Amino acid sequence: EVQLVESGGGLVKPGGSLRLSCAASGFTFSSYNMNWVRQAPGKGLEWVSSISSSSSYIFYADSVKGRFTISRDNAKNSLYLQMNSLRAEDTAVYYCARAIGILFSSSYYFDYWGQGTLVTVSS
Amino acid sequence: QSVLTQPSSASGTPGQRVTISCSGSSSNIGSNTVNWYQQLPGTAPKLLIYSNNQRPSGVPDRFSGSKSGTSASLAISGLQSEDEADYYCAAWDDSLNGVVFGGGTKLTVV
């Protein structure tokens, strides 16, 4: 059974940093592109970042570019999101999602999602 | 402001057929496939339709998707109370080099 379990969320002050983790199990982690998607309270889904299976390709939403860093450790079946210079507008539930398809191809979608971890940026 | 445009709400009665639209542009829906996600209250999103019109295993055939040009639609037939959820369309965007979502449509079964 595919499982994605996020952790690392919490309350942080504006300008602070946080590192999210996503532990994957039930599939060959190193064969899949992985992603972070967030959802602000009461709002819609927003794609944050994607990383290819071998970390060769990485993409970020403009809203987090230069502040967030996605990475993965295939030996540990884990995905990470280092978040720096956090702002109030980064407050959201952050979901880890497995992708099917090749990055920047015509068909790319998220077939499994974690339960999410809440990040609150407030003084 | 979301890149893909969806109605904010939709409603129907049990047994009815409802459709949810999703409008984009040549850099996203016009050149890439559309996917739909269902988010039940208080839960994580779930893949509902992929590659415009394909259903993952376990998704009832009451759910169907279609795409034409730079627009797509999700249809739900035989509406049930458990279909009350938020529905999101999404696609890869060649200009932004990322996935874009619609703002979401809240479906109410009255």
Describe the structure.
The complex is a heterodimer of chains A (123) and B (110). With 123 residues, chain A is mainly β. Chain A has strands at 3-7, 10-12, 18-25, 34-39, 45-51, 58-60, 68-73, 78-83, 92-100, 109-113, 117-121. In chain A, strands 2, 4, 5, 6, 9, 10 and 11 form a seven-stranded mixed sheet that branches. Chain A has a four-stranded antiparallel sheet with strand order 1-3-8-7, with no helix packed on it. Chain A starts with a strand and ends with a strand. In chain A, 41% of the residues are buried. In chain B, the strands form two sheets. In chain B, strands 1, 3, 4, 7, 8 and 9 form a six-stranded mixed sheet that branches. In chain B, strands 2-6-5 form a three-stranded antiparallel sheet, with no helix packed on it. The N and C termini of chain B lie far apart (28 Å). The model of chain B has no long low-confidence stretch (mean pLDDT 97). Chain B is mostly beta strands. The chains are: A mainly beta (123), B mainly beta (110). Chain A binds chain B through residues 35, 37, 44-47, 50, 59-62, 95, 100, 104-116, and chain B through 2, 31-33, 35, 37, 39, 44-47, 50-51, 56, 86, 88, 90, 92, 94, 96-104.
Oligomeric state of shown chains:
heterodimer
Strand-pairing-aware structural class of chain B = mainly beta
Major β-sheet profile of chain A: 7 strands, mixed
Radius of gyration of chain A: 14 Å
Mean pLDDT of chain A: 96
The termini of chain A sit apart by 40 Å
User: What's the β-strand tally of chain A?
Assistant: 11
Largest interface, C-beta closer than 8 angstroms, per-chain residues: A-B, 26 and 28 residues
Shape of chain A: globular
Classify the helix fraction of chain A into a percent range.
under 10%
Largest sheet of chain B: 6 strands, mixed
What topology does this entry show?
The complex is a heterodimer of chains A (123) and B (110).
Chain A (H helix, E strand, L loop, with lengths): L2 E5 L2 E3 L5 E8 L8 E6 L5 E7 L6 E3 L7 E6 L4 E6 L8 E9 L8 E5 L3 E5 L2
Chain B lengths: L8 E4 L5 E6 L11 E5 L6 E4 L13 E6 L2 E6 L8 E9 L4 E4 L3 E5 L1
Parallel strand pairs in B: 1-9
Antiparallel strand pairs in B: 2-6, 3-4, 3-7, 5-6, 7-8, 7-9
